[in-house]
Amino acid sequence: MPGGVNSPVRAFQAVGGQPVFIARGEGAWLYDVDGNRYIDYVGSWGPLILGHRHPEVIAALRDCLETGTSFGAPTALETELAREIVSAIPSVEMVRLVNSGTEATMSALRLARGYTGRNRIVKFEGCYHGHADFLLIKAGSGALTLGVPTSPGVPADTAANTINAPYNDPDTLEQIFAAHGQDIAAVIVEPVAGNMGVVPPQEGFLSFLREITRRYGALLIFDEVMTGFRVAYGGAQERFGINPDLTCLGKIIGGGLPVGAYGGKREIMERVAPAGPVYQAGTLSGNPLAVTAGLATLRILQHPGTYAELERKSARLADGLARAAADAGVPVTLNRVGAMLCLFFTDHPVTDYESACRSNTARFAAFFRTMLSGGVYLAPSQFEAVFISLAHSGEQIDRTVEAAHKAFAAAGRI
Ligand code: PMP
Fold first, then answer.
1. pLDDT score of 293
2. Which one of 284, 301, 318 terminates a domain?
3. Which atom of ligand 1 is least distant from the CA of 224?
4. Domain that holds residue 26
5. Mean of the pLDDT values across residues 169-177?
6. Among 108, 151, 345, 372, which one is least packed by beta carbons within 10 Å?
7. Which of 188, 225, 340 best tests ligand 1's pocket when mutated (most atoms within 8 Å of CB)?
8. Which residues carry this modification: N6-(pyridoxal phosphate)lysine (predicted)?
């Protein structure tokens, strides 16, 4: 396998050493093949908001297995998940299930182009929307970590239709629309950026996106693959009260199995085949096992108090980390929205790609390695989020903060 991995973010290229090979997970614990145990803050990169092997999810999967693994035909289960998404996500009236976040964003943008009859799209520097050609331009996540935000293999003609704008910068976007507004099919945005580290939208930024897209007849697409059912049950759009035209989902709605989804206004979604002419399909889309894990996860997330608990746990971790950094005299900027946070090794505020890139990645690498040897598994990159789950106990969070004291000291020596 290239780099020994099936997804670049899993390699330890940015932090040194070899990736940990995982044997199993239980709650917030992760066990490697050498018998070491870690407190897991990756959570499979976001889906595992309940932790590993939640008993209700596993029981639902066992029952589902008895009925078959895939039919390639309609099932009640997928309808149930579609209904739950429509009732949960404020702007979604119709939804199509796919198999990954990449498929969701790729399909949503095809739909936006088909619906508007325009070709150009606007994305933001440092946001990651999967690996479709036209989205791998100044992209975040592994592309940013590895220093290849614009991938070879993306034809120049394709790249020419993607316009990049700085995150949190209405003035530049205003200029882009003034120059190209009539050709822009859509603006796609992570409403809380999570792929250049965590960068919250500044006050008014999302409402500005809503206003300017409407003004020019372009669609607004929220990529809520990471934020959906995480920063609130109804995603960032519920948390910030902004309704996009289309929404992309993934991660949590599959409960740890491969699922994605895109949805939005009925009038737009009715253009998708076979209701309309914009083609998009999938052999395993709406897969019963994946849908079952997603439904079981969402059912638990609906319990009263769930998001208050996530907030409490996340604040406890964030406060502890900030204190540990201050004790060690290491300047950090801690950004957090709900159960996703990022510790940037910089004393500047981080509001966009450029300010994220000012972080001291050598310090992050030292921090990461000391945390790992102290039994804490973080994403092996400065530019990824820390994901808190309901499975993290107060004791595990306190242990994490204890490990961080040592790790900040190690980072401070760089
Ligand atoms: N959009 C966002 C915001 C993401 O965070 C990711 C993955 N981290 C994707 C899209 C792509 O999803 P997938 O890896 O499932 O293709």
1. 98
2. 301
3. 3
4. 2-54+305-412
5. 97
6. 151
7. 225
8. 251
pLDDT in the model for residue 144: 73
At 145 the pLDDT is: 74
Q: Which token pair is 189? A: 């945005």
Q: What is the CATH number of the domain that holds 292?
A: 3.40.640.10
With contact defined as beta carbons under 8 Å apart, do 135 and 146 qualify?
no
Mean pLDDT of 90-100: 98
Same domain, residue pair 85 and 185: yes
Is residue 235 in contact with ligand 1, taking CB distance under 6 Å?
no
Does residue 403 sit in the same domain as residue 318?
A: yes
3-state secondary structure of 222: strand
Q: Are residues 285 and 404 in the same domain?
A: no
Same domain, 396 and 255: no
Give the Å distance between the CA of 402 and the centre of ligand 1. 31
Do 40 and 132 reside in the same domain of the chain?
Answer: no
Give, for ligand 1, the residue of 48, 129, 387 to mutate: max count of ligand atoms closer than 8 Å to Cβ.
129
Whether residue 219 is found in the same domain as residue 359: no
CA 128–ligand 1 middle distance (angstroms)? 7
Each residue of 111-147: pLDDT tens digit? 999 999 999 999 999 999 999 999 988 877 777 777 6
ipTM of the complex: 0.99
Taking the alpha carbons at both ends of the chain, their separation in whole angstroms is 33
- Neighbour-count burial of 155, counting CB atoms closer than 10 A to its CB (0-12 exposed, 13-18 middle, 19+ buried): exposed
Q: What is the pLDDT of residue 150?
A: 77
Instruction: Using a cut of 0.95, tell me whether the model's pTM lies above it.
Output: yes
Does one domain contain both 364 and 393? yes
Structure tokens at 70: 């895939």
Ligand 1 within 6 A of CB of 223: yes
In a shared domain, residues 231 and 365? no
Structure tokens at 297: 């996860």
Number of independent structural domains in the chain = 2
The pLDDT tens digits for 243-253 are 999 999 999 99
